[in-house]
């Protein structure tokens, strides 16, 4: 049962990461309402992904991940794997 739950959570994050990438791209708009481009867009999208993944970095016990577990999770989440 636990394995099924873990597999479901991982699949959800994988799908969520793909949606997150598009969401961050859509949110990349400057104060003037124009779409960001170049380094500004790259920086914004990276920060957006980090912030989104940070909120999802929670263990099965409900506590925030730390150390190697958090690093691994953040890497996978940000890559969309």
Description:
By secondary structure, the protein is mainly α. The mean pLDDT is 82. Helix content is 72%, strand content 0%.
What layout of secondary structure does this protein have?
Layout: H1 2-27, H2 38-56, H3 67-79
Question: What are the key terms here?
Answer:
single chain, 81 residues, mainly alpha, 72% helix, 0% strand
- Structural class, by secondary structure, is mainly alpha
Q: What's the helical proportion of residues?
A: over 70%
**Biggest sheet architecture:** none
Q: What's the total count of β strands?
A: 0
Shape: elongated
Q: Please mark out the parts with pLDDT under 50 across 5 or more consecutive residues, or reply none.
A: none
How many structural domains are formed by the residues? 1
Q: Note the gap between the termini.
A: 23 Å
- Global Rg: 15 Å
| Average of pLDDT | 82
Note the total helix count.
3
N-to-C SSE string, H for helix and E for strand: HHH
| Percent of residues in β-strands | under 5%
Provide a quick synopsis of the model.
This protein is mostly helical. It contains 3 helices and no strands.
